[in-house]
Amino acid sequence: MSSPQSPSPSLAWDATSLAGALKAAAARRSAHNVGPLHAVLLKLGLSASAILATSLAHLALRCGLPRYARDVFEEMPRPDVVSWTSLITGHAHQGLYHDSLALLRRMVKSGVMPNGYSLSGGLLACAGIGESALALGKEIHARVVKMRAHGPVDAVVENGVLDMYSRCGGIEYARRVFEVMLVRNIVSWNSMMAAYLGSGQAEEALRLFVSMGSCGVGVDGFSFSIIVDACGELALLKQGMQMHARIVAGGFEADVVVRNSLVNMYAKCGCVDSAELVFKAVPSRDAVLWTTTISAYGKFGRVQDAVSMFDRMAKLGIKQDGIAYLAVLSACSHGGLVREGWHYFSLMSDGHSSVRVQPEHYGCLADLLCRRGYLEEALEFIENMPFDSSVAAWSALLNSSRIYGNARMSQLAASHLLKLDPENHSNWVALSCVHASENDWHETWMIRDSMSRECVKKEPGCSWVELYDGVHVFLMADQSHPDLLGILQSIDSLMEDTSLMPL
Fold first, then answer.
1. How far is Cα 476 from Cα 426, in angstroms, rounded to an integer?
2. Distance CA 144, CA 420 (A)
């Protein structure tokens, strides 16, 4: 039999050889073989074969040809559960979530009973859509529960339910599903830890990791990546270093996903030198790892290193996506490099790059102009943006206007922010403070009266620091810390020492 890359018309094809060719072509994603193999199927008069037609549709989906796959499917006289399932899961894996769910609905209406893998494809589609698909995800979960009454359900389906709830914002539902699971494999534990981390509950992720060890479940690279990310979110350097030691002992230090998390964790904990050592430990051309390191350099003032590294990515042929450009623009903003910032922005906007300019990139360049005090230029840039709105850009203008004492610009920026994001209580407070700073008490009290009627309350500022005896949390105007007096005395002493330092 000839290679599936070039089906020979002279070959004596039969159902067996065609099935093998379809399978091999799907494994290689050989798009140019879809048409010729379809022609062989028709020539042999086997288009009514559900197995071969399903294999052809699967090949088309693997090659990114969903319309072709649906056309093949529609020609099947009696598609079975395998045919439906292949199409549902294939569309979900291609990111065509709504099409996947539409096919699942058609399957049910046609009288074909979905199996666990059909429902797994629907769950994946719901997870891809997010919160708006939570209700539909619950319906699919109900079918899984009914299925469980007739026998055990595959762990893939159970984990699909868990992942769906976590990605659709139903963290409490995810926790309940996890607690009642009869079999929890490594995927289940990782999914639940990732769900906690994604919902801002990094402490719960850490607790679950400890429970995971107590239950004798072995960890993998994804487990370590999730927990290192949790340490980074909480700025727990000591625990992060302990995880790093376990990663090295377990032989995961070359895992690029784990290394990305380590670089990010050390950067968030303020140890950019340690982040650099992790990056340099094993040579890699992974774009995400390079981008993470560029971001770490930028956040801690090593702007030239960030710029140099970004330029080196281009010379090495490492793909620079929108996030990489955002990282270098942010570095330029932190370092006040206006010329370099304009250069990288122009590379995107002038068509020299395949990256599409997003509102975040405009916001970053606006922030750069604002930080350098070019407020009028920044205002003109923001007003000429090709997007309807950019909260990040107006926020940057507001902050810099207040720093540079430009009341007119502050009021303008605060007013725009309030229109763009009225649910953000900080915008109300900012506008109130701007008018108060100008002694415009009538307008100030009008705004504060509106805040009172709308029950607007600003969340207090919060910061924390990790010391040897644990993590100390401080809230604005909070006087509950047991060592408050000593802390204030130390701050007064530091301020006195600073005032005596020669300029």
1. 15
2. 42
The reply to whether the predicted model has a pTM over 0.70 is yes
For residues 86 and 331, give the distance between their C-alpha atoms in angstroms, rounded to a whole number: 46
**Does residue 374 contact residue 338 with C-beta atoms inside 8 Å?**
yes
Question: 467 phi and psi, to 5 degrees?
Answer: -120, -175
With a cut of 50, say whether residue 153 has pLDDT above it. yes
Q: Which residues pair with 465 in a beta bridge?
A: 472
Quick one: pLDDT at residue 277?
94
CB-CB contact of 136 with 101 (8 Å) = yes
Show the tokens assigned to 356: 């599409």
d(CA 296, CA 462) in angstroms, rounded, equals 23
3-state DSSP assignment of residue 465: strand
Tokens of 162: 């868990």
The residue written with tokens 């599903």 in the block is 177
Task: Please give the structure tokens belonging to residue 482.
Answer: 């047991």
DSSP helix/strand/coil, 467: strand
Residue 99: pLDDT band by 50, 70, 90 thresholds? very high
pLDDT-based confidence at 5, cuts 50/70/90? very low
Q: For residues 108 and 142, is the Cβ–Cβ distance under 8 A?
A: no
| Mean pLDDT score, 87-93 | 94
Question: In Å, how far are 185, 186, 189, 222 from 215, measured between CA atoms?
Answer: 11, 11, 11, 18
Residue type, 316: L
Residue 283 has pLDDT above 90, yes or no: no
Sequence-ordered list of residues with C-beta below 8 angstroms from that of 369, at least 6 positions apart, any chain: 338, 375, 377, 378, 381
Q: Is 4:25 a contact under the CB 8 Å cutoff?
A: yes
What 3-state class would DSSP assign to 146? Answer: helix
Residue type, 261: S
User: What is the average pLDDT across 244-272?
Assistant: 94
**What CA–CA distances, in Å, run from 501 to 69, 103, 137, 491, 498?**
74, 72, 63, 15, 5
Average pLDDT of the segment spanning 219-237:
94
Q: Is the pLDDT of residue 457 over 80?
A: no
Secondary structure letter of residue 351 according to DSSP: T
**pLDDT tens-digit series, residues 35-71:** 889 988 888 888 778 889 899 999 999 999 999 999 9
Helix axes 116-129, 155-167, angle to 10 degrees: 20
CA distance 272 to 276: 6
* Per-residue CA distances from 131 to 84, 89, 125, 226 (Å): 25, 20, 12, 22
Helices marked H in 384-473 — which ranges?
391-403, 407-420, 425-437, 441-453
Element (H, E) at 98: helix 97-109
- Beta pairing partners, 470: 467
Q: Give the pLDDT band (50/70/90) at residue 406.
A: confident
